[in-house]
Amino acid sequence: MKSGRREREGPQSKGFAFPDWAYKPESSPGSRQIQLWHFILELLQKEEYQGVIAWQGDYGEFVIKDPDEVARLWGIRKCKPHMNYDKLSRALRYYYNKRILHKTKGKRFTYKFNFSKVVLVNYPILDMANSPFFLAQNHFNGSTGTPDCSPEVRGVG
DNA sequence: ACCGGAAACT
DNA sequence: AGTTTCCGGT
């Protein structure tokens, strides 16, 4: 039988799930703040946000059901009170060239992840054996979405 | 709604 | 580098 870890699967998710190691606590080396695509993944992972953003359609495809709310939540996380969908979507558009995302044309508020890129670039799968991802996964899942500007995470020293 | 250049900010 | 802000164009 397969030795891989079981994939996360919500009760009502239609067979779609990320492998556990796709979850990462923070951003890639270089930037300290959470990245937008991490945040999107985070919302997508939680069932309480299925009315706001959810997987839909093809593999890796998701639809933003409530653009204003997603923008609001992103604004809270980044402490940008004036965030809106216009600006958030600009950030998503920068992912096109980076090949992290692309737009599903014709479908409103619908984008699609390029998992091969997202996964391979950000997580050295080959190094999974002794990677901190399995540990990080717990950290990630335990995250309640504390804003990066929160005093809790800001300066302790 | 969606696109992408340009400049500013971190 | 990864956005945030702004905006003219489709």
TrEMBL record:
<dbReference type="InterPro" id="IPR000418">
    <property type="entry name" value="Ets_dom"/>
</dbReference>
<dbReference type="InterPro" id="IPR036390">
    <property type="entry name" value="WH_DNA-bd_sf"/>
</dbReference>
<dbReference type="InterPro" id="IPR036388">
    <property type="entry name" value="WH-like_DNA-bd_sf"/>
</dbReference>
<dbReference type="GO" id="GO:0000981">
    <property type="term" value="F:DNA-binding transcription factor activity, RNA polymerase II-specific"/>
</dbReference>
<protein>
    <recommendedName>
        <fullName>ETS domain-containing protein</fullName>
    </recommendedName>
</protein>
<dbReference type="InterPro" id="IPR046328">
    <property type="entry name" value="ETS_fam"/>
</dbReference>
<keyword id="KW-0804">Transcription</keyword>
<dbReference type="GO" id="GO:0043565">
    <property type="term" value="F:sequence-specific DNA binding"/>
</dbReference>
<feature type="domain" description="ETS">
    <location>
        <begin position="34"/>
        <end position="114"/>
    </location>
</feature>
<comment type="similarity">
    <text>Belongs to the ETS family.</text>
</comment>
<keyword id="KW-0539">Nucleus</keyword>
<feature type="compositionally biased region" description="Basic and acidic residues">
    <location>
        <begin position="1"/>
        <end position="11"/>
    </location>
</feature>
<dbReference type="Pfam" id="PF00178">
    <property type="entry name" value="Ets"/>
</dbReference>
<feature type="region of interest" description="Disordered">
    <location>
        <begin position="1"/>
        <end position="22"/>
    </location>
</feature>
<keyword id="KW-0805">Transcription regulation</keyword>
<dbReference type="GO" id="GO:0030154">
    <property type="term" value="P:cell differentiation"/>
</dbReference>
<keyword id="KW-0238">DNA-binding</keyword>
<dbReference type="GO" id="GO:0005634">
    <property type="term" value="C:nucleus"/>
</dbReference>
